[in-house]
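Record type: monomer structure entry
Structure origin: computed from sequence
Chain ID: A
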Amino acid sequence: MKLKQLYFPLIILLTLGGCNEKYTPKPRGFFRIDFPEKGYKPIKDNYPYSFEIPVYSDLIADKDRNAGQFDSNVDFPKNNAKIHITYKEIMPGYKSQSSYQSDLVRANNFELAKLLEESRKFAYDHTIKADAIDEKIYLNHNERVYGTIYFIEGNAASSVQFYLTDSVKHFLRGALYLNEVPNIDSIQPVIDFIRPDIIHLIETTSWN
């Protein structure tokens, strides 16, 4: 009987002592993402634009009922991401081979000005979630491709957007989307991986 009386207080003391231990939650982890080796291929479909896309992606026509005839998506199935491409013909039927200076004059037409403003608005609509937006001008005089790239930092739905035009007939807009909740800590590796692919797409763009 006395032995049981000694054990009981000892068990109580050990139990209370264990309650003083602090629980430290483990930091949230993310799945490891294995990326393929870089490589590029030209698109083969009959579009009024041409560019090269990664070998681990596919160019798929946009089947949305509101999509234009030449709208498309560069699909990254393993990364759950896409570059959404929209295309507009500024001046249908225009075939002049005028100089770059003449093209700049024509760039003042209402339709192009409207498209430029829409592109800028689409990019800056993300300022509510974005930490910063960095604009880069792109000029390729040889291929008559001019545009702006918007790098959008933070938990925005689209982290990279751009537009390209010859300032006369063609206007192309692109936006990167990930089919994930925009948590920058988890999606940043995918964004960092695809950004060079977007730059390569832009640098290989030409008009048909």
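Annotation 1: Residues 184-203 form the longest helix (20 residues).
Annotation 2: The helical segments are 2-19, 100-106, 110-124, 184-203.
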